[in-house]
Model the fold of this input.
Amino acid sequence: MSYVPATTKRTTTTTTRRRPGTRQQMDRQLADLPRWLEKVKALPDIRWEKVAAIRAALESGQYDADARIEDLLERFPAELAALKDCQV
Done:
């Protein structure tokens, strides 16, 4: 049986174990940032009167959140399909 000192054991750091392509993905995401910021700026303003009305309905128990969620879930796949065809 041979003795191998612990100091000769090979160690790796997190920087040497980085997945290939990670830097390129980050660079691409950062390159897309100005376009995403423009899209966010183009979104309509928050309609605070509508927010206040929904909050009041929730507090009074008159807002049927379950029905609203069901409606949104039915429309969600169609909206995702439409986004797939959009150019970012």
Notes: The radius of gyration is 26 Å.
